């Protein structure tokens, strides 16, 4: 496994990829979400699923997709969804409006088809950025790999996952209410 590096060391990849940035999200929740103002707004009942052009992630996705690049992600969701996953379902619509194609699938289906249990980004089918999380869901760092075996495996995961995953808007209609 390559050395663990801070996430900030790879942030440039989100601006400098040529064609695609693809993510697999496997966690039930993320500390970065729970510590943000958007989480508090969501907990207060606010609709957080709107595109916000001044929000850095939305602005970056819009700039890259306007340039013809693709941002895609698949989120694994428990049944019923965890609190963190409900937050991501609610907030994901803003990302979709910014230009990101987000899809979801149930964790049980992911396990059935043999998907990994770790998060990663795949840039241009050449660079894999695998996350390492603490017990509290905080990002401790990432491993960056460009070797053929790791990249090919990530491409296979992307391809099979994309085949089975459902667009966010459709998936939200299927999710059972938790109340």
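^ Assign residues to that structure.
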């Amino acid at each position: 496994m390559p050395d663990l590096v801070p996430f900030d060391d790879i942030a440039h990849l989100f601006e400098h990829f040529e064609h695609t940035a693809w993510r697999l999200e496997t966690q039930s929740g993320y500390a970065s979400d729970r510590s943000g103002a958007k989480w508090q707004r969501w907990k207060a009942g606010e609709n957080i699923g709107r595109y916000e052009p001044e929000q850095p992630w939305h602005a970056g996705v819009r700039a890259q997709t306007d340039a013809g690049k693709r941002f895609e992600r698949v989120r694994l969701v428990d049944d019923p969804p965890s609190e963190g996953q409900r937050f991501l379902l609610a907030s994901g619509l803003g990302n979709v409006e910014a230009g990101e194609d987000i899809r979801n699938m149930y964790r049980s289906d992911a396990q059935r088809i043999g998907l990994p249990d770790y998060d990663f980004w795949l840039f241009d089918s050449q660079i894999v950025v695998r996350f390492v999380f603490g017990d509290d869901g905080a990002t401790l760092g990432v491993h960056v790999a460009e070797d053929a075996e790791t990249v090919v495996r990530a491409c296979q995961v992307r391809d099979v996952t994309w085949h089975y995953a459902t667009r966010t808007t459709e998936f939200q209609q299927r999710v059972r209410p938790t109340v």
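The longest strand covers residues 70-77.
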